[in-house]
Amino acid sequence: MKRAERQRTVVAMVDGMGMEYFTAQALPSMQQLAATGFFQQVSAFLPSVTNVNNVSICCGAYPDEHGITGNSYFDPKLGQEAYMEDARLLCTSTLFQRAAARGIQSALLTSKKKTLSLLAEGTTLALAAEAPPASFVARYGPAPSIYSSEINYWLWQIAVDILKEHPEIGLLYIHTTDFPMHAWTPTEQRSQEHLQTLDRFLGKAVEQAPDAAFLITADHGMNAKRRCWDLQKVCERQATPIRYALSAEKDRYIQHHRTFGGTAYVWLSAPEDLEAVQQTLQKVPGVELVLPREQAAQRFHLMSERIGDVVVLGDQDTVFGELETEMETLEPSYRSHGSLHELAVPLILYNTQEVFSAAETFRYNADLTRWLYRDDA
């Protein structure tokens, strides 16, 4: 086993912490780690939603390698939609599986239980604050609501204690929830209090594990959105009907975002409809880009067989989803992600024993962990 693989490693994935949040207030611990370690602004993957990017980071792989293309997907053979939460959908190994193959124990701590369904295989300990084991409730008290900032604090206290009490855990992965970013802008007090509190927990974690490498990034940013389109209804009204339209953001956390997101997948009723449907979609106000399947897959590192015949991207103000009407003007407080405008995220490496050459590049959030537990790394 290489020397770097004997080093404890902590991966902190701060859900929703785009650059606009990272730079909005003083975060002394993160800023110290960035200053004394390595820092770079990098890109998340499109669709800029949690499953696509969390899996990318947790596998150290791009979406065209791991196969997760959204929070949900549509199976055209079955004619059914399903959440992308089944580990059998993964097409590559996770950090936990690769660590286990090297005899390294690992722990996955997440606020969201869907993360366990996808990524828990190979872990020594896997805990979702949304549905915590009784033993953790007995020690830490009931976990706060998934629709709160406090659930992230509850989770991070456990992370600090694991680092203090269980040095045998060689890999610790911490995934928070982005509810605070959906709820508040980067400059609002409650938003800043949330990240400052997480920053203090990070500082405690570094104190408890001075030997550990700390790797920090995010899955996406967040923006205010002012309108949502139902593309199924849009195409129907324009006499270019489609088989199905799906927001890549759609998951179980309806209170976060009402399932609306800045990327939509569209499946055609027939291949010959492509040109007419594309023309309809390109005329929709707020639609920034319309690409056929193969172009989108190549441009955004997506697995082509798991996306629509057409990929539709909204501008910074526009999202897509299922509505009672064709278009809805959203409340001023509504915030979501999924588009090209939520891709900028921070990447920090601190205290790594792995030596990176001058030519080593970190372009994407997944590059944070791409080198971990690989025979060729």
From TrEMBL:
GO terms for molecular function: hydrolase activity. InterPro entries: Alkaline_phosphatase_core_sf, Phosphodiest/P_Trfase, Phosphonoacetate_hydro_insert. Pfam families: Phosphodiest. SUPFAM superfamilies: Alkaline phosphatase-like. Signal peptide: none annotated. This is Type I phosphodiesterase/nucleotide pyrophosphatase.
